[in-house]
Design a protein that fits this description.
The complex is a heterodimer of chains A (325) and B (711). Chain A is mainly alpha-helical and 325 residues long. Chain A contains 15 helices and no strands. Chain B has 711 residues and is an alpha+beta fold. Chain B folds into three domains: 3-21 and 679-710; 52-264, Alpha-Beta Complex (Dipeptide-binding Protein, domain 1), CATH 3.90.76.10; 398-638, Roll (Dipeptide-binding Protein, domain 3), CATH 3.10.105.10. Helix content of chain B is 33%, strand content 17%. Chain B is built from 25 helices and 25 strands. In chain B, strands 12, 15, 16, 17, 22 and 23 form a six-stranded antiparallel sheet that branches. In chain B, strands 5-4-6-8-7 form a five-stranded antiparallel sheet, covered by helices on one side. In chain B, a hairpin with a 5-residue loop joins β13 and β14. The radius of gyration of chain B is 30 Å and the shape is globular. The mean pLDDT of chain B is 92. The chains are: A mainly alpha (325), B alpha+beta (711).
């Protein structure tokens, strides 16, 4: 397995270089360094000299990808692309174009994102699995039909509606939780109840249907019939055997997103006033802050690859038939 | 009690206790002391800069204008806006000199004045806020036991303000490393500013290891001279009376060199603790907590100098009870909490729950808050009145306009034909309708470039734009048929170009992409349809739009301007020929150039607010109305709501340091909050009951399944 992990980790470099080039090209197709300077300096009284000064101070006065004026290796290294990319591969994210330390920003903002994302994931998965198994248990009667109908209704409603309706109902009419806000430490509890509840409820429709389809496939297998023939109750079969054997596809869905949880949720964090990372990238795109965009895309890609690797490893833990050697 | 039940009970009780610690369950604040003399307010996006040399937008000024103080401020209550000393001991003594450096008297012609010299005297005994940067030991090393999370846990110190601090800040404005947005502008006025900037750039390249404070102190600026600890002189080119308005902006707040030096610690920079994020000022408050993603907290500055609530104001301010706190030491509150609210819905709901003291009105909630009477008066809805919420309105000192590119072959130019085309379009563009549909009635159609409240604005019949309106007891927009006559005279009868026989097609460049943009652009098309002119909307992003404007490639565009200071020069310069954007890179986006207007502008800009100045402004306005380089658009009206416990709120559109005048009645607030935030539990019981009802058929089916046979 060690060889497999090393091999997969070595694949990371070409993938990240590719992602980095793609991000760079896409960003600078839309924005020029002059545009970035003008965006940062504002609309009023901005002279070309101020723009040139901004670029020089931030290192955007160099050629983008190839420096004709330089000699030898410097033709490639004395460029915006190289200067802005090389630090990423040693996880030196550097300063944003606004002058803030990106690593410090991420380490400060990831915790509130995790405070919402982890309980949402745990309670969401538990609720989805439980309801999906119950739908299997009540297969063929009106409780299943009713449940499926509610799932489809739930899937048809926009996520934004759950947030606004939840805030209105629980925060405004019932006055049971703050409508939005956040506090660090133990004080966070009362602020995360509502977003977590809405996250879980809002995801129930699609989640239950997805897990139900997994369990249905599993419930049709021979060992289920054998277990029933041996006298096990339906509930025992479902919760002990079907659930265990359906873990591989469940893990595929969960483990791969685990490293990305800290990236947060754009809409949810915005409406609930959670100071997380959800809007970090999108704000950076709006403000044409290339330093943040490249860092977040790089980090996102790296974590996604790590998530895939963890998924592969987790297969070996839940299914003895799978081996990575 | 068995173990599981005991554990569950413990968890439930703990959670209930936790939830109840702060009173109401929905209280978004956690600290108990926050219910004293505290202002609760919001910010909707993280400020870019809190360095007074860089900050230039209202959301940045909302914070830093409470921490930094310039030499002058706008009187809180007097109208028209009036400057008064803040950190200055008195208003400046201004002396004029000719090109040979000979003194001139005050009545000298502006054309004879080569230099103006401002002698500035600062107040004695003003101290900076307590801050670790004044503890010089900390410049070398920080204590090892410092956790690195709170600057104010370091040993604090202070020192007395001197003229050096003002001079240091002017040097910072000129320093290329600071990247101040007004560096280019000030370079055109302050003597030696550009030379200083060049020297700093050379020093920065030559000695990159030199720290900023050392580098700035190593050189002097010719036009800025220290007289003594309390006095200094700024020398500027020519006569520029508006310079004093710049001295009232945060750009010219004093900066302690120690702050720059202290924040050069690498460990602080790694924690995003820099002068750009943790200001050091002399103002009524200091920034105790800065999490731009969650909240910022200002605390009362214990070293704040004597500063008292004004005892004079307008008759309106007296009748509104705004002089109730006259003579009291400022600030009137101990703490200000700015919470980040990106979305308008939670902000509005929390305002209604009493957790924010004041609120603007978004279009989503406008109908809940405001009603218009049959005669157009503005009032609050019954629901708002029942909550004792107050409403304040004010026409802002800004203007939103639609500009023609005067360099364009079709809509630009200065011939009668060109003018009449623009005048015809000006008539059919029904801004009254626009304000009603898209601004919820919050705006005043503009008659000229100068908004109400600024010297030079003329209201009533005298101020009406005769090209667009007729006076019939009130301004009445001219008819479409009158516009069609002008269009015909311009050679476009019924929208057909008489020269080519083809329909007239005009182009509007827009970066409008919000949810209302489609409706807004459709409305615009309909206005041109009245003249059978085809309007093509060219959607573009921010970058390309700016580029088109810089190169003069746009034909028509919408833009806005917000006053820097209350002087007509700050609006009329938007049409000054030497500021033409495509030609000189200035702020004249329409590239309007009229020799007569320019000559009058040069004359007017150096005058005091006298009847002679008004006469010149009237002439200038008349020229621009006839040339119709802009559709004058509208001046937005700001609506704000505030709770009964929020006192002294006054729409002063020039003052940025208004927070110190606000007073809060915490007892009244606590009472209202308790009344409005009683939890409602009974729906939870219904939900529980429904769930239990569902369990019955589930259990019955379960039993049936378990008892059924396989076959």
């Amino acid at each position: 397995m060690i060889n497999y992990i090393i091999r997969r980790l070595l694949y990371v470099f070409p993938v990240l270089i590719g992602v980095n080039i793609l991000t760079f090209v896409l960003f600078f197709v839309v924005n020029t360094p002059d545009d970035m300077a003008r965006m940062q300096l504002g609309d009023k009284h901005v002279s070309q000299a101020a723009v040139e000064n901004w670029k020089q101070q931030r290192g955007y006065d160099l050629p983008l990808l190839w420096n004709e004026q330089a000699q030898g290796v410097e033709q490639a290294t004395n460029t915006i692309f190289f200067k802005k990319s090389v630090g990423l591969f040693v996880f030196d994210l550097g300063l944003s174009d606004n002058g803030r330390d990106i690593a410090a920003d991420i380490s400060q903002r990831m915790w509130p994102s995790l405070a919402i994302a982890i309980p949402s994931l745990i309670f969401g998965v538990l609720a989805n699995i439980t309801f999906a198994l119950l739908l299997i248990f009540y297969r063929g009667n009106y409780l299943e039909f009713g449940g499926l109908f509610l799932c489809i209704v739930s899937m048809s409603i926009s996520g934004l509606f759950y947030i606004i309706a939840g805030q209105y109902l629980i925060g405004k009419l019932l006055v049971l939780t703050p409508i939005s806000g956040y506090a660090p430490g133990a004080d966070a509890f009362k602020f995360i109840i509502l977003p977590v509840l809405i996250g879980v409820v809002g995801g129930l429709g699609s989640g239950v249907r997805w897990y139900r389809s997994l369990f249905l496939e599993e419930a049709a297998k021979d060992y289920v019939r054998t277990a029933k023939a041996k006298g096990l109750s339906d509930l025992q079969v479902l919760f002990k055997h079907v659930l265990k054997n359906a873990l591989i596809p469940i893990l595929t869905g969960i483990v791969v997103i685990l490293p990305l949880l800290f990236m947060g949720s754009l809409i949810s964090e915005s409406f609930f006033g959670i100071p997380g990372l959800g809007s970090y990238t999108i704000d950076a795109i709006s403000s044409q802050d290339f330093a943040i965009v490249r860092s977040m895309v790089f980090l996102g890609s790296f974590l996604y690859i790590i998530g895939l690797l963890l998924t592969d490893i987790s297969y070996t833990l839940v299914d003895p038939r799978v081996s990575l050697d | 009690m068995n173990k599981p039940i005991k554990r569950i009970s413990t968890v439930i009780v703990s959670l209930i206790l936790l939830a109840c610690t702060d009173g109401a369950l929905n209280n978004p604040y956690v600290q108990k002391e926050d219910n004293g003399k505290v202002i609760y307010t919001v910010f909707s996006e993280r400020p870019k800069h809190l360095d007074p040399a860089k900050a230039y937008s209202s959301n940045e000024y909302a914070i830093i204008a409470q921490v930094y103080e310039p030499l002058f401020q706008y009187h809180y209550l007097k109208r028209p806006y009036q400057l008064e000393p803040l950190l200055a001991q008195s208003m400046p003594r201004v002396r004029y000199f000719d090109a040979q450096n000979k003194p001139l008297d005050e009545t000298a012609l502006a054309t004879d004045i080569a230099y103006s010299e401002y002698l500035l005297t600062i107040r004695k005994g003003v101290k900076f806020q307590p801050h670790p940067s004044f503890n010089l030991v900390l410049h070398k090393t920080l204590p090892e036991d410092w956790a690195g999370d709170d600057l104010y846990r370091l040993p604090l110190a202070t020192r007395v303000l001197t003229s050096d601090d003002f001079i240091y800040q002017i040097k910072r404005l000129a320093d290329p490393a600071t990247q101040s947005p007004i560096a280019g502008l000030m370079g055109g006025y302050i003597i030696g500013f550009n030379d200083f900037s060049k020297k700093q750039k050379a020093l920065q390249t030559q000695f990159p290891q030199l720290r900023k404070a050392q580098r700035l102190q190593a050189e002097s600026m010719m036009g800025v001279r220290k007289i003594n600890e309390q006095q200094f002189i700024i020398r500027i080119k020519g006569k520029y009376p508006q310079f004093i308005n710049w001295l009232a902006m945060p750009f010219f707040s004093p900066m302690a060199w120690e702050a720059d030096e202290f924040y050069s610690h690498q460990i602080l920079l790694k924690k995003n603790m820099s002068l750009d994020w943790f200001p050091v000022g002399t103002g009524p408050y200091f920034l105790k907590e800065n999490n731009p993603n969650r909240r910022m907290v200002l605390l009362k500055n214990p070293n704040f100098h004597d500063d008292f609530y004004p005892s004079q104001g307008t008759a309106e301010s007296l009748s509104a009870g705004l002089l109730a706190d006259a003579g009291k030491q400022l600030p009137l509150t101990d703490k200000v909490i700015f919470s980040l609210e990106k979305e308008s819905i939670p902000y509005w709901n929390k305002f209604l729950q009493g957790y924010y003291d004041s609120s603007g009105i978004s279009s989503d909630s406008f109908d809940q808050a405001v009603v218009f009477s049959a005669i157009g008066g503005v009032g609050l809805t019954d629901n708002m009145r029942a909550r004792d919420i107050g409403l304040q309105t004010a026409v802002t000192t800004s203007t939103h306009y639609l500009g023609f590119n005067m360099l364009d072959d079709v809509v630009g130019g200065y011939t009668q034909k060109n003018k009449k085309l623009r005048q015809a379009i000006s008539i059919v563009m029904d801004y009254e309708e626009y304000i009603s549909i898209f601004q919820n009635g919050r705006g005043v159609p503009s008659q000229s470039i100068i908004p109400p409240g600024i010297f030079g604005h003329v209201g009533g019949q005298q101020g009406v734009n005769p090209v667009v309106y007729e006076w019939r007891g009130k301004a009445v927009r001219r008819t479409v048929s009158q516009a069609k006559e002008l269009l015909t005279a311009a050679g476009y009868e019924n929208g057909i170009d008489s020269a080519t026989g083809k329909p007239l097609v005009l182009y509007f460049d827009s970066m409008d992409s919000g949810p209302d943009s489609k409706a807004r652009l459709n409305w615009l098309r309909k206005q041109f349809d009245k003249l059978n002119i085809q309007l093509v909307i060219r959607g573009t992003d921010y970058n390309r739009f700016q580029e088109k404007m810089r190169n003069g490639n746009a034909q028509m565009f919408m833009w806005a301007w917000n006053a820097d200071y209350p002087d007509p020069e700050n609006f009329l310069f938007l049409l000054y020929g030497k500021n033409a954007k495509a030609v000189h890179g200035g702020e004249n986006a329409a590239n309007y150039q009229n020799a007569e207007f320019d000559a009058l502008f040069e004359q007017m800009s150096t005058m005091d607010n006298t009847p002679q100045r008004q006469a010149i402004i009237d002439k200038m306005i008349n020229i621009t109305q006839q040339d119709a380089a802009w559709l004058w658009g509208f001046h937005p009206k700001a609506f704000s709501l505030h709770h009964a416990w929020y006192k002294n709120g006054n729409p002063n559109l020039m003052a940025n340091n208004k927070t110190k005048y606000i007073n809060i009645d915490p007892v009244l607030r606590a009472n209202y909050q308790a009344k409005w935030n009683k939890p409602v539990y009974w729906p939870l019981a219904i939900v529980l009951l429904v769930f239990l009802c569902l369990l019955i058929p589930a259990y019955l089916i379960y039993r049936r399944i378990e008892r059924s046979t396989a076959l």
